[in-house]
Amino acid sequence: MKLTRIALEEFRKFRQPMVLDGLQDGLNLFVGPNEAGKSTIASAIRAAFLERYSTSKVADLAPRGESGARPSVELSFAHAGHRYVLKKQFLSRARCELLIDDGAQRLDGEEAENALAALLGFEMPGRGQSKPDLAGIPGLLWIQQGDGHNLQEAAGHAGTHLRDALTQLSGELTSTDGDRLFDRVSAERAALLDARNGRPKGIYKDAEDALARAVAERDDCAQAMAQLNADVDRLAELRREHERAQASEPWKDFEARAVLARGQLAALAKEREAFDGLRREQGQAAQTLALLQDQVRRDQQDESDYQALLKEAQAARVRVQAAQEPLARAQQQRQAYAAAADAARLRVAAVQAVADRRDLDHQLAQLNAEIERLDDALKAVTAIIEQGSTLKTEAVRTEISDADIDALRKTERELANLQLRQQAIATRLSCQLEPGREILLDGKRLTSADQVLITAAAELELPGLGRLHIEPGGQDLPALKHELASLQAAWAALLDRLGVASLPDAEQRHARHGSLLRELDGMRKTLAIHAPKGLDVLRGQRDDALARRASLQERLAKLSAVTDTEQEAGLPDLPTATQALREAESVFAQADKTLAAAQRTLDTDSARAQLLEGQAARGTELQSPELAAQRQARAGRLAEVRSSHDELERRVREAQAALAEHRPELLEQDAQRFEKSASIERDAQHKRHGEILQLQGKLDQAGAQGLGERLSEATAACERLERRRDELARRAAALDLLLKLLTDKRAAATQRLQAPLARRLNHYLALLFPEAALRLDDTLLPTALRRGGGEDLLDALSFGTREQLGILARFAYADLLQEAGRPTLLLLDDALVHTDDARRDFMKRALFDAATRHQILMFTCHGEAWRDMGVEQRRIGG
């Protein structure tokens, strides 16, 4: 199959007609940037063949935002000696037309689409858009952008067509008696065995389940019988143990020994109570001892603190007396430095007043110049505004727009053209009269020198001879005259509306208007220079300047009143006076700090001395005779309590040693042990009695159920079901063996069927991976790549490698289809973009080799990478 021409119109981005013709038999390389329309062309080819013309689900084919569009595609191609032209239009006025051999045969609508589906090997959708599972051979060979790696799905959808082609090439039959036998054996085996794991299913599994249930029931009966015999033996043993325990009563001995242990514990409890009383008395004595020790320690600490406080108060009073003299000196120095600082401030104020008067004089001079400039600017702005108003009035009066001038010029050109056409069509009458002769044209006398153009019917009177009726020109002359009259009326109306007599007058007014506008623009710029923010702002600036000048004059008058020339002559300059003031203030500040520090020191020492003296005065209360007697009494009490505490501690140790000898915890453990033993013996006897009653009832119930008869019936059922299961097992094994033999035979036939495809795949694969091979499955799809002694599943390979193998496999499928006489066309839309430079060189060899047998349309945005393909690159989108 060879495409020769592609034409699109109103198809997505191609609103205007776009034609690609002169397509070559081999590789056709189309390059262009992103969004140039390459994928649109590929989509148009797919839509022309695969989409129904009548579907409304292809609105995306229309240009964006254009309602009522009619996307259309026209393809010219040839195959098997026939020439085809396919014309398909979608959406509005949808239609489909297929012309064969220059119109020798013409197919329309669904008939044409069905013929294309049979020719190329795909199926038309019942309704809506085409689906991938219907695309068949085109879906395999026409690779969409970013879909080159997806071989399994595309080849699966084209599997029927590929198998038909391989069958045609290899001679193998796709449907034979062997296949029917294989299907029957597979079905019968599938009825008995699971195809995934070979486990029983259907009636075979039912037989096994029934056998399992019967065996379980038999085992349950056998287990119940064995349990019944065990229960009889257990009942006899329990009766013997019950009678033996009832005769000996061992729990009574344990209870007596427990009572003896509890009596010994009661005697020890009284000794423990006496010991606990001693412990409590010892604790109280310890608390009293600690309290007295703390009180005596505080009495000693208070005496020590009082003596230290007296010494510290005396030292503080000495420091207060020593701080009086520095404070007096600091006060005298501060007074002297304050007087010097005040004198320096007076000198600086006088110097500053002189400097302020000079500065005010300078500011007044600058302000007067500014006021004079603002006055001049106001006069200039006022004059410009008045002149601009006059010019603006004249500009409005003389305004003629560019559109009106263009309309006048266009109308005058059209009038001239119509007049020239009228003159060319009109009848031209020239007069050459004998002397004394005359003729009349519509009553107007003509002389020998007149030349007249007749544009309408006229009467030519020949005195003495008669009249001539003249119909000038052809049929267009009346219409031309009417058009000329209409245009002249419009011309006159336009001149009247503009108030001019002719085009030159209008152009002169238009030129004058432009000149006025330029002059006004110059005035606006001049006005922006003098008053950039407007006349009101300029006036405000002038008023502000006048106000500031009045304020400065008032301040100057006040300064002149307090300073005179004599004072100014005797004063130092401002920097000298300021420096002297700074030095005086610095010395004064230092003296002030010294005075403050001396005052703070005195205040701190005085406060500290007063505080310590107050505390010492309060401490004299501790030296009273009453408090001294109390301290003496507490010391004597401490000695008595310490002696009593030591005696109690000795008695506690002796009582604790006596209790430890009796080991009361062991007696408690003995009592608990004997009590538990008695309880266990009683519970065991009660339990044996209950178990005897339970076993007796169970044996009575088992005897009523007929366990022996049930066991015999269950054993018979197991034997019967086991024979049925073995029969089905033998049948399943036979079917499994037969299926394996048929599968081996079928695999050999499939291998012969795959031979042509494997040969073509290895041809292309050797260009990319020498010493490698592709493994095919039963559906003729590549599943794994064998290389280097190992095998990699296709899904485990990188995206770029899968894309390269997918394209090579499509070349092989195309070779097989071509050998079987089927049409082939390869479309590669931005393929191999994930390929490195080395792999791309190998793929170029494969692409060039495939192009010697097939027509290939390749669309790419990487034109530089494909310049060495030996074909001219055709640019899309400029």
Tell me briefly what this model is.
With about 900 residues, this protein is α+β, with helices and mostly antiparallel strands. It has 19 helices and 20 strands.
Describe the structure.
The chain is of the alpha+beta class. The chain has a domain at 2-157 and 769-875: P-loop containing nucleotide triphosphate hydrolases (Rossmann fold, 3-Layer(aba) Sandwich). The chain contains 19 helices and 20 strands. It has helices spanning 38-50, 109-120, 136-141, 151-157, 159-170, 177-192, 202-248, 250-398, 402-425, 476-498, 503-530, 535-562, 565-570, 574-619, 625-662, 664-705, 707-768, 799-819, 837-851, and strands at 2-9, 18-21, 27-31, 72-79, 82-89, 95-100, 105-108, 142-143, 427-430, 439-441, 444-446, 451-454, 458-462, 466-470, 773-776, 782-787, 790-793, 826-829, 856-860, 873-875. The strands form five sheets. The protein has a six-stranded antiparallel β-sheet with strand order 2-1-4-5-6-7, with helices on one face. Strands 8-18-19-3-20 form a five-stranded parallel β-sheet, with helices on both faces. The protein has a four-stranded antiparallel β-sheet with strand order 11-10-13-14, with no helix packed on it. A hairpin with a 2-residue loop joins strand 4 and strand 5 (82-89). Helix 7 packs across helix 17 (707-768), helix 9 (402-425) runs antiparallel to helix 11 (503-530) and helix 17 (707-768) crosses helix 18 (799-819). The chain is flat and about 190 Å long. The two termini are 29 Å apart. The relative contact order is 0.13. Mean pLDDT is 79; it is low at 173-177. Residues 627-636 have a biased composition (Low complexity). Residues 221-248, 327-384, 535-601, 704-738 form a coiled coil. This is AAA family ATPase. Keywords: Coiled coil. Residues 5-80 form the Rad50/SbcC-type AAA domain.
